[in-house]
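Thread title: Can someone regenerate the structure for this chain?

I was given the following input by a collaborator and told the matching structure tokens would be attached. They weren't. Posting the sequence so someone can regenerate them.
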Amino acid sequence: MDGIDVALIQSDGGNFVKRGPSAFTPYEQTTRQRIEAALMQARTIKDRHQRPGKLTALERELTDLHHQAIGQFLTANKLSSGEIDLIGFHGQTILHKPEDGLTIQLGDGQHLADQTGIEVIYDMRANDMEHDGQGAPLVPAYHGALFSNIAAQMKNEKAVVFANIGGISNLTYVGSDGQLIAFDSGPGNCLIDQWIHERTGLDFDEGGAIAGSGNIVDTICSHYLRHPYLSLPFPKSLDRKDFQPLIDNNVSTADGARSLARLTALILMASIDQLPTLPGLVIVCGGGTLNPVIMAELRALSQEKNIQVVTADESSFSSSAMEAEAFAYLAIRAKLGEPLTYPMTTGCSQPVSGGKSALPDGMEAIPKSA
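Best answer:
Regenerated them for you:
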């Protein structure tokens, strides 16, 4: 909920991926507050098309902000809208309840297409849920393509794990034979961010400075490690509200942050232990890579298992842009009618495509064979 990532790629929707520039536009504090309020309003939604209260206005506001971010990106990179074939538009998630087959991302695909003059592929999670999937994670198809580009450089035949530490952590296992397994592993930054905001008013622990001055409180870690979600079989997915924020007046701000940083690493490693084989390499992306305490904990735990841990940036990818790149890639696959999800990534009954297309007035659709 921190802002908008924009990334440019060229791809055939298969294993060819050429990565381009990227950018980040932060939300203003007032926008973040409206999104926070929307999380509460969304709890009453029973149908994915409902927009109670102020959600309709917020959806238009967020769509306009995406339009502005795209315009700034094109200008900064000396590109015209006519040079862009598709926009993959994820939108802002405000509700994710896979047990009810319900996921809601605020974002008006048709309005964005009309504003930009570019075809927009949006609403990429719904079709997966209609085929008994969890609707998340969606990024694994892109991870599989990236793996194919680095497989020849690997000096062994071990599997690779892509671990994304956002608000929620998720991982993708790519076997040496290309097998894909993916699931949300547990809290990433959300518990730390909530703790820091409650104690200091800050939005996050910048550079892990607060956590770095604290000590681990084992009871905090053991409390969360007993959560029933962690023992569920995969595929599985989470909403950021599924794990309750830490509330403990007997723990210092620094000790709480330090403990939650270790928890993030412990949960990721416990999830890796559940995979068919241990990977030789873990590539970490997302905001968690900017917290050196989380990364140090993850590397220490991985060293015990002879697993190398690197950030996406250290692997010639982009830690911050990978998810935006993924949704550009998924837009291409959706346009071509190729699967976005698989039974072992979301639990869907069969490999399924997804997404809806929105064309600006007067534009003819690009043929799927193009």
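Residues 55-76 form the longest helix (22 residues).
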